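We read letters as residues; the fold follows as tokens. Both lines appear below.
***
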Amino acid sequence: MVEKKAVVRNSAGIHVRPSGVIIETINKSSAKISAEANGFRVELNSVMALLSLGLVQGDEVRIRVKGPGEEVLAKELVELFERHFDYPPRK
């Protein structure tokens, strides 16, 4: 098992659109992945699970990955949690 920490950098936090990108990445792997923040821990198996953490800018997230390619996947997830997502505003 690999455990890494990330700090949410996105000014709007981890909302629906970034959550979709993160879960899409997770779904490409058979590894078991969980995240812990603000005293809550969830299995990262759906957008709703990730959204339930209510992550805002500056929150620290502990990511745990167990399974094939865990080191590479953990690093990729840290990069996603720390990314500044720049989505154009919806009209």
